[in-house]
Amino acid sequence: MNKFFYPKLAVNNIKKNSKTYIPYMLTCIGTIMMFYNICFLVVAKDIEIVQDSGSLRQVMLLGAMVIGIFSLIFLFYTNSFLIKKRKKEFGLFNILGMEKKHISKIIFFETLITSAITLTVGILSGILLSKLIILFLFKILSFNATFGFEISPTAILASLCLFGSINVINFIFNITQVHLSKPVELLKGGNAGEREPKTKWLLTIVGALCLGTGYYIAVVTESPLAALNLFFVAVILVIVGTYCLFTAGSIAVLKRLRENKKYYYKANHFISVSGMIYRMKQNAAGLSNICILSTMVIVMISSTISLYTGMEDILKTQYPKDIIISAYEISDEEAKTLNEIINQQTSAAYIEQKDVIYYRSTELLAIQEGTYFKPVENQFDTMDSISTIGIITLEEFNRMENKAVELKDDECLLYSQRGSITENELNLNGYNITIKEKLMSLSSLDREAMASITNSYVIVVKSLDTVNRISASMNITERVDIRSYYYGFNIDEDSEVHVNLINNINSSIRESDTYGRADGPELSRESFYTMYGGLFFLGIFLGILFIMATVLIIYYKQIAEGYDDKERFDIMQKVGMSRSEIKKAIKSQVLTVFFLPLITTVVHIVFAFKVITKLLLIFGMTNVPLFAMCTVATIAVFALFYLVVYYLTARVYYQIVS
Amino acid sequence: MSLLQVKNLKKIYTTRFGGNPVQALSNVSFSVEKGEYVAIMGESGSGKTTLLNLLASLDKPTNGEILLNGKNIVTINEKDISGFRRDNLGFVFQDFNLLDTFSVKDNIFLPLVLAGRPYNEMDEKLKPISRQLEISDILNKYPYEISGGQKQRTAIARALITNPKIILADEPTGSLDSRASDGVLKLFNEINDDGQTIIMVTHSVKAASHAKRVLFIKDGQLYHQLYKASMSNEDLYQKISDTLTMIATGGDRNE
Lengths: 658, 255
Known about the structure:
The complex is a heterodimer. Chain A is an alpha+beta fold.
């Protein structure tokens, strides 16, 4: 026998199955390209120039891992789809006298050819694309790009290893599939007399419960710290719920519809409901995959975009003043030294301090139960009710607010930045104090950033004696004069001057015998850009990958359905259904299958919206309208994309059916 | 006036890439009276399936007329043709053409649902038909759960439920064993006795011997016809066999 027999046959097979193989190979190429590039960014020399290159590499490494795991699952899934479609072909070979080992040989050559093509093209186009990608990344990070072209052997090797092993796994799976089946079964392939799916009430109820609980958690959670813990619980519940409802719930609903005689025996409902019952049985998993992937894409892209575009807002919340010097637990003496250092450095640089504020406070962490506050014993218990309390003296309050309020020993003023106290008395672990007045605002303290994550209160008391008594009651043993110190001011200078001043103050503090740290938006801007820009980049990058996966799943679904439906619609035409009626029926059915996941996705996102805004608070992102806008825009773009894919695949579908 | 009149029917197939045109029917004329049971016989490639497709309005003739109740069905436009087919014709196929996604009952209802009839009316119509065809107890089963004979009886019920003017049957016994075939043929005689007009295309001499009239087609032309009149099934069987032998051995019509 000609030694090129098997390779030739393999090439022919690939050509013959081009309708399914070309999208598969394109996806392989796309995934390889993206994987090469993300690996490239982990090791690229150009990244060195970014100030915080270590954390940027970390972000990219995380991305590489996500893409790697995703590629494995996704390519395995598509491959199993392909091989299912081709079982009939292998059955024919078997009956024509080929042994299973010969078929395995053909599959081997097919795998070899497809993986050689996809790896070569994927890595080459990945290398070509890498320059563009790094330029894009630098654009996002607002860095000037370097020139020169870099090829990373590490990234090439990583891609070869990963996708080589994926191909080996797929190959082993395919030949075991062929070996396990009998020729007659192979010939029958997918369409062995299908039974009507049973209604699984238990699964439906479980699904509804999971989804309901997930939604409930997402809507009810108020505190960002609790959100951080519960978010993943909610996500898993919603994923489980989605799978259950798509597989069991949909069939239960459809069967209900079928029992309603008035509804069911209408021409368009009759055909679509009966078809959908079978459709859902085969496609529920695929549809819920699409739904979950889409939700992930939209959440990821919208939140990273809003973080990136809201960066200035975030900086402003984190740093209410241009230059901020803060210290925890220092004495009055040390605070005085800090003042001297600050004044010395500013006057040395001929800089004028504007909007100066400074105050000392005692900071407490407490667990709030209504008006009762108790000390925190375990870091992890009841994150939800944890609150921060800042205690300042009346003297300091009057100075900063320019007022002359008077208080008795057991009286205080209360300002709730976040959280609420309804009574007129506070109980600080047994120490009772009456609230004389609830302040509506206390903006002069620059404490907004603190209030973003936990409940936060400011208590103004008469004297240090009262502070002392409260501290004792809350089991704090330090000396009364050891307190926090905050000093902040604005300056009218260039960014460079900001950075220099901050650095100078910090080095003076280090040389002195006091403690504290100077900081400011200008100093942090670059590391913010690196961090959020890196996340933004990763969001888009993964978003594209997930969208690609969604597109392919949808495409394969449509093709598979097209072949199944061809026969059905042939029969209906013979029985007296017109071509236009058929087209209408197909359209409504395809539309439902197509847009069910998209609609579910939107519902998921509506419910998740609140909890995501809470999570963004942890990153310092407080601009909810901005996030809402980003979400709506992302959904719109995604829906548009989805629509295009729908029209393209629907065309292939019509071609197959008619 | 005859229920169905076929006049000078001609059908030429041209392949898409301009190959040689194939003449499937050259000049066929005949008529069918109301209440008749006509079998059309012929070898493979004789043009009988083409004829049936034209009668079923699934295809258009190159030339000629088909008049149903005096109305030319060839000129009905594409938009109305499905409705026409649904209201006037009932189909029975060799491979049943039942939909796996529907129960037996829903398969029978299909043409009525497409015509937009209310459920109560459909249910009323189903009762006598299902009783006659002995499928009352399998109405809620699915096609993959029932036997071939039951499938064909379901298909016949689907054809009957619209009260069609003509039932067109294409090899109705072709996929059935002899017992199930006998059942279906007996059924056809029964519904014909009730006044239903039937046109059946078949290979099977036995099936044709149940008809009242047998038309023979050869090379796209009407070759011969036999009337049953007062003959028994066995006598007609013998005559049909003789005619087929004559066709096969190339005998001339006038012999």
